[in-house]
Design goal:
CATH superfamily of the largest domain: Thiamin diphosphate (ThDP)-binding fold, Pyr/PP domains
CATH topology of the largest domain: Rossmann fold
Helix content: 25-40%
Mean pLDDT: 95
Distance between the termini: 42 Å
Number of domains: 2
Structural class: alpha/beta
Number of strands: 14
Shape: globular
Radius of gyration: 20 Å
Strand order of the largest sheet: 3-2-4-5-7-6-12
CATH class of the largest domain: Alpha Beta
Strand content: 15-25%
Length: about 325
Amino acid sequence: MTAETSYLDAARDGLAEEMRRDATVWTLGEDLGRGGVFGQYRGLAEEFGPARVVSTPISESTIMGAAVGAALAGTRPVVEMRFSDFALAAVDELVNQAAKARYMFGGQARVPLVARLPIGLWRTSAAQHSQSLESWWVHVPGLVVVAPATPADNKGLLKAAIRSDDPVVYMEHKAMWAETGPVGDEDAVDDDLVALGAARIARPGTDVTLVTWSRMVGVAEQAAASLGQSGPSVEVIDLRTLWPWDRTAVFDSVAKTGRLMVVQESVLVAGFGGEIVATIAERMAGALKAPPRRLGAPRVPTPYSRALEDQCRVSAEMIAETATTMV
């Protein structure tokens, strides 16, 4: 059975199901006892109690450090950072401890934690509450990096992330909390799990391969639909997982279309889109009918002003125009 569920509620349901299934799963972060800053933990404290839904002091390094230690000791903590920007106060614990422990101990230790980092542009949230820093985390060996684009994936990928034996940076887009879509219920058991590292074709097409993730998937689908019968046919690939990313899905699509566009909401300079473009250029240059294109934000702090903030956004119109010029 499926039901229309919000992006926020889907993740909350997935976390609750995993906590019921596995007593070693617990969660910690600021304000979780009252449901979390966005309400994504609403009702969990009442069901599982303060020992498994832990409201912490305002200290990101302490929160992450406690989670790393607890994961090494055999539990599966889900760490709430409130905003991805705030996780920068916990970089040492995540990058130098969690990401490296399994390697440095020769596989004798593991750190199965999930760090939830809400990302993205959210109306008038300004420079310290609007960042998408996925390229930082993808750069770090030992981290799995996930960016769900639909309610169903936000449930299925979170459940898969919790079951992973490696630390997972889990990036949910703040502007998508209220978006709804079909999601399997708990009666489906594990049918709603989404494998880490497997992309999906969000919209099939024949002329241009468009690779993206998170909120930009919906924007890309809107752009592809706007081109209609008269414009190029755009195949939209939702990566879902940025590391490991599904090279086979992208390779197969580019082999068919001969054209590649990568769209990201984050700053274009040194963004993860460049990694995809470089990989295709190195492996499939002979298959390309046009130079690859990238779209992303300018290298500026996100402005508070709505008018200036909009200048940092990648729009459906920009994507449709770029696809047309490529063909």
